[in-house]
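queue> pop job 88
queue> type: inverse folding (structure -> sequence)
queue> payload:
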């Protein structure tokens, strides 16, 4: 297999981690990232392919296709969910380009919560009791008759913000008004899903899929709340660890058998085979394991702790998925732990300022990976342009060792208003 250029679509820490990992494959000669960020530009070095950002947005599909053809790209990898929902995979495949990710029809598992719930019920995949509504009065009647705590969700993609956990009926009524009347999430809230609020241990499992075969990744645990002690608002993720120390291999086998394999078989039966990464948010309840949600791509910041532990060539894994031969690949993982701590802008996840100069990255040791998310280069100066700015990542023989490396590196990094959690990985949910 000769080396060839690849294209990664996206601009966050997930995409930087994909680029960092794939640059170390002997099959990759050059990496292009669209639109990329301030950290996704480096020259070729011994055993590492060059990477360059290109200012094409993820929704500019025709421009992306033209660029991929012009650069003779051998494989395209889609990072974020919106282009998958928009049908980018179908468009690239239609012109004969090799692309990793689910089709628009298969991506409905994430782009429509109502679709996902109906699919799970149809195919016997355990999930919470639910109902879907477009009319607020009908929704309110069902809610009051249900009489148990609920979660109210906007049906469509809402950048991770369309899920409202409600402790009381009054809070649920307010959530319905916010989504259906106030249009807080725009078209994503044309319909709501109200579902039973489950309790138990929450965790996520990601798998590679070629439409027939699944290959599970090490289990990561994300930290969603903004502040130490799991306080504050929900965020896109303030840090992560892998492998999660309280998830057993038996549990992963059960998830594959009871969740992922029926999902693949159900998608194939509907003539929408699922190819790509499938991410199941799960809860271990008193009644058994249940699916909270599906995502149709790599998680962020889970990717930042999963891929550094992967010993198998990622390019070979992705290509095997696209070519329908994942059964030929054996995933091998480092016997180690990985931790990432997110450095966020002051005020995140609320309003925050941008354009803050970032310093100290040149003082971080070679044994620490700093994956960029909300950064840009302005006149040669690296500055903040997002809420989650950097993910400081380290590998160690133990989780404590990895965390110590990450936090020691953070002491060398600075930008105005920088904040981060100091308790990543310090508490295991039971």
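queue> result:
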């Amino acid at each position: 297999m000769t080396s060839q250029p690849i294209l990664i679509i996206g601009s966050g820490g997930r995409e930087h981690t994909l680029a960092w990992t794939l640059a170390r494959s002997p099959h990759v000669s050059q990496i292009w990232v669209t639109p990329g960020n301030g950290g996704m530009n480096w020259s070729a070095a011994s055993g590492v392919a060059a990477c360059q950002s290109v200012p094409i947005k993820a929704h500019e599909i025709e421009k992306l296709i033209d660029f991929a053809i012009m650069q003779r790209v051998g494989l395209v990898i889609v990072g974020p969910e919106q282009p998958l929902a928009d049908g980018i995979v179908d468009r690239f495949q239609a012109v004969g380009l090799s692309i990793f990710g689910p089709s628009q029809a298969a991506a409905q598992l994430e782009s429509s919560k109502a679709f996902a719930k109906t699919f799970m019920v149809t195919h016997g995949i355990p999930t919470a009791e639910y109902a879907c509504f477009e009319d607020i009065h009908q929704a309110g009647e069902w809610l009051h008759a249900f009489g148990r705590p609920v979660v109210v969700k906007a049906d469509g993609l809402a950048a991770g913000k369309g899920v409202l956990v409600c402790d009381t009926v009054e809070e649920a009524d307010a959530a319905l008004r916010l989504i259906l009347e106030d249009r807080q999430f725009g078209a994503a809230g044309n319909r709501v899903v109200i579902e039973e609020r489950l309790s138990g241990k929450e965790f996520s499992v990601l798998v590679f899929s070629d439409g027939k075969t699944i290959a599970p990744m090490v289990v990561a645990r994300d930290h969603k709340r903004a502040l130490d002690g799991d306080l504050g608002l929900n965020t896109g993720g303030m840090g992560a660890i892998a492998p999660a120390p309280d998830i057993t291999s038996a549990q992963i086998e059960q998830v594959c058998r009871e969740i992922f394999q029926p999902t693949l078989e159900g998608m194939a039966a509907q003539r929408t085979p699922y190819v790509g990464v499938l991410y199941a948010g799960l809860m271990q309840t008193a009644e058994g394991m249940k699916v909270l949600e599906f995502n149709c791509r790599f998680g962020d910041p889970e990717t930042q702790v999963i891929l550094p532990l992967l010993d198998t060539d990622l390019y070979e894994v992705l290509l095997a998925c696209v070519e329908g031969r994942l059964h030929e690949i054996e995933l091998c993982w480092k016997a180690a732990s990985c931790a990432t701590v997110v450095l966020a802008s002051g005020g995140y996840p609320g309003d925050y300022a941008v354009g803050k100069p970032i310093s100290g990255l040149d003082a971080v040791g070679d044994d620490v990976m700093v994956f960029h998310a909300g950064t840009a280069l302005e006149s040669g100066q690296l500055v903040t342009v997002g809420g989650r700015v950097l993910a400081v990542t380290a590998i160690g023989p133990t989780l404590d060792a990895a965390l110590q490396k990450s936090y020691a590196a953070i002491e060398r990094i600075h930008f105005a208003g920088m904040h981060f959690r100091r308790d990543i990985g310090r508490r295991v949910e039971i």
